[in-house]
Write the structure tokens for this entry.
Amino acid sequence: MTIPVPSGMTRNAEQDITIEVDETLSGVDSGLLELTINGVVFDETEFNWSPDGLGGGIIVFRPEENGMTFVAGDTVDVHIEVFDSPDWCAPNFAQFDWIFYMEPEVTCMVLPNPFTPDGNDINDIAMFTYPNMMSETATIIVFDMDNVEVWRSDAPVQLRFDEAVGRLWNGADTNGQPVEPGLYLYLIIVQDEIICNGTMVLLR
């Protein structure tokens, strides 16, 4: 078990790192445990080690206790080195590596704006962005200037910044009919809260 999960994502700048270590034969030599995070080495005095009574245990590293914070958009590299403690032979050695990601900071935006859905493959699609879109689902709603809803989309968690699932509007209404050129309003709702609102211009 590792927290965060390998290749997972978090937006917590002081995310605890938890690692379960199994060694049921000779047991882990806790005095030789070594944890490296983004190239900085920490020994057993700088993280918590909780034995499980079976030879292994759980490491918990709390970055705030070691003057470390993680930066939005960063990749965090984690490396651990483990030795066992046999009675008669030299200790065995194992090492493990994995990474997790810090969610990048994203602002409310529509690109391009204006956009021109005229079929010439230039600025035909408007793409919405919003904070925490890589960990939160959202509903995007577009209204005309009479406050009539013309388009709505449920955007899932975006696994990649360029994925754009549910975040693209081609200038058609919910029935697939092209809307009139003009100024439109949009809302982006996350967990029943409006987190983005603004205007966009559609030209043809």
The chain has two domains: 2-102, 109-202. Residues 109-202 form a domain with the Immunoglobulin-like fold (CATH 2.60.40.4070).
